[in-house]
Amino acid sequence: MAIHAISLIVNGTKEQVQVPSNMTLIHTLREKLGYTGTKNGCEAGECGACTVLVDGEPVNSCLVLAVEMDSKEITTIEGLADSGQLTPLQEAFAELNAVQCGYCTPGMLMAATALLSRNPYPSEGDIVEALVGNLCRCTGYQRIIDAVQKASRNGGAR
Amino acid sequence: MKISESGLIGKSVPRTDVIDKVTGCAVFVDDIQFGPSLLHSRLVRSPYPHALIKRISTKKAEELPGVRAVVTGKDLTARLGLYLIDRPIFASDRVRYYGEPVAGVVANTEDIAVEAAKLVKIDYEVLPAIYDPVESTQPDAPLLHPDLGSYTVANFIFPEPGTNISEHFKIRKGDVESSWSNCAALAEGRFSLPPIEHVPLETHTSIALSEKSGQMTLWASSQSPFAMRDMIAQCLGIPHNKLRVIAPLVGGGFGGKAGVTMEACAVVMAQAVEGRPVKLRLTREEEFVGTSVRQSLVSEIKVGCDKDGNLLAMELTYYFGGGAYNDYGVNIARAAGYSCTGPYDVPNVKADSLCVYTNHPVGSAMRGFGMPEIHWGLEQIMDQLAENIGMDPAEFRLKNCVRTDDEIVTGMKMTPIDLEACIDKVSKAIDWEKKEQPTAPNKKRGKGIAIMWKAPAMPPNPGSAAVVRFNEDATVNVEVGGQELGQGSFTIAAQIAAETLGVPYNSVTVSSPLDTKYSPYEWQTVASRLTWSMGNAVKAAAEDARTQILETVADHWGEEVDDLTIKDGLVISFKSEREQPLDKMVIYGLPNEDFEGWKGGPVIGRGHFMPTYVTNLDPETGQGTRAVVHYTVGAQAVDLEVDLETGQLEVLNIASAYDVGRAINPDLIMTQIEGGAVHGMSSAFEALKFNESGEVLNPSFVDYRIANIADIPRKIHGDYVETPIGDGPWGARGVGEHVMVQTAPAIANALYDAVGIRFSDLPLSADKIYLALERKNETG
Fold it and tell me: What is the ipTM of this complex?
């Protein structure tokens, strides 16, 4: 299989990496670059655990090939908190216990971050629509909705 | 009354793990890096639900470049199991469910492993399969385990060799037969539910490494690293000290990561490639097809009451579809048997609870362990009986529900609870008396209530151990063997340690990952037992450490231990008002006068807890002094509406209340109650579906729907009451599983209230509801 040299900007850092044609972004992030905060839940785009931002848009990283990502800006969960300072969304998820096992949390936070950056004051319906592709088996979702609303009041995605 | 010294007990402190989890730093097993030595693997699974294996040819797979090893069950005769040792690691002579592992391939990459797995050629002779647990008890049913009589079995499990029955638990209490004629009203029904999956977001993942020294290390997504070690060590003849299980945080368990699922396959594959770690990571499809399920159940129930609505008699038969291997399932049937009546005071009971082999996936524990299964029928039949005697369902439950000190179904005296308070709370929260209007003319609205009980279902004497270790700066590491699955067990451990030691909460760290090489023993993270059992062990360990500190300081000051305490990290004397900071002295001790020697030393507290008071039950009557350690009880009420044009059901409001004994961390309890209500609601619509050939038809998130964010009730109300028990820390007991036990029947009761139709069989799919509405319209 052909190997491609690509460059990505991950959380602001330029990364150069060699990937086979069939390697998806999630495997590139996790196995080639060590960004293991992004979680693999189904590899079929059905659970949202692997959501990252590509040029600011939420994307299931299991559904896109790494070669298509050449020169794109990727944000993963590791890129949210800046030198120890949590974003209002991370703070709200922590304060409201919108987290249990934590496996869906990175994807949930990335999808919610994208929502708040395009719509800083979402309605409950907007939140539900934005997160309907992110499954969680633990929390029952209500606290996730509450946390996004709280973060929206406290300054949005930032 | 002041519950706790520093106010930490009953306080909703932040989770210990939450910052790691919101920043992507939390480490799950798949996140551990092994570098270039890591090999990958794939299992070859049976395409038939029941067949004899005639021949396995691994040659072509072995010849594929990049393949390191292909393993089969050929030389593995030992079986695995917790209560009934009946399961091979790889099937060698016979497969018993679609998806059963038959071989494993180890290769340099995952892609090669997948290719090679397709090249393993297996010849089968297909046998007739059986799926229905009732049919499987019949004499003409295909016999799944002809060797049942030779399997090793726990002394409280009673299989019936020569049949497919792996456990038969009996209750014979009072005189059921002669009671029926005294009944003013009866209700009878047959209820069923299909196998469902746990569906954690993290699929089962293991990495195993076999070293030349004989050391085996297994990294696993596990709720129970010690039980996993014990089962695999026994099966493969590895000394316990040579098998090390390391279990980092678990990405959702719900019972599916208790015991052993596929981890032994990884160990056997690693043995074939000594010195190289082998990763086995289940795909989402395999998670649906090849892991354990909540067992199916068919229940037959008859119940009667007198003219005032007092329950007089109950007759029950439970047929648990245990699947191909019943190792865990037998104890679920037993638990269902000794709690067969649900939370009711019934003087005369005859019950038979059976676990039966079928050609479905392995039946196992799932959040509630037999209780969601039996309450599905019980809580509907109680509604029917209330209607037949002309009583309100909530009032009927208040009249008949179990109370503290009642003699319950096994003859045991009921441990302290207040179920009436739970019923009152949910009735109020849902405005039970008020008939609500539907939100649209094409909809009908109804309310339902259901109550529950559950005891930790486990052997009589599962133990917990804990170690409390001080550091130089008086921060504390708490070591436990209980797992953090999201339920908050590490937070509870930290709270209990901080409170007992008199140190700040944020100075306590709970050590993770769990590691059988270093962590103190814990039986398993199951049965909602950690707050109670591990909590007791942590409290004992912290008390031990505290005593060591106080003895050293008392000696140093020439005072009595009883005059001292520790508060905010300072030892203080009530008598002399002296103060001694903990830092340094918890490691270096304190000097004698004029530095003539030293006293004390590194402080390490040790504690354990094991219940010692559970007794055996008579195998013929199910009677005994103390069947279980205690019960947790609760109630739920549901307000819903049904779209008559589509059969779609929408839960508008769900209210829950449980008696938790003592709320150590109230907000963590609420997270369990809320999450459990949605899990319970979701479970009412879930089913693992099979075609006639036993193939799983819906092994994906698209086809096996779990509740998403758009499905949740408009209002989720949670509450708790506190009736402390004698043997829990500050009176606390667990509530992690109870929160979904009675949700499905509460929904069914509300559905009946809305449309007047009883649904006896799960799932409550829209098409089923729509067709039933249509039939009702036709017949008037």
Answer: 0.98
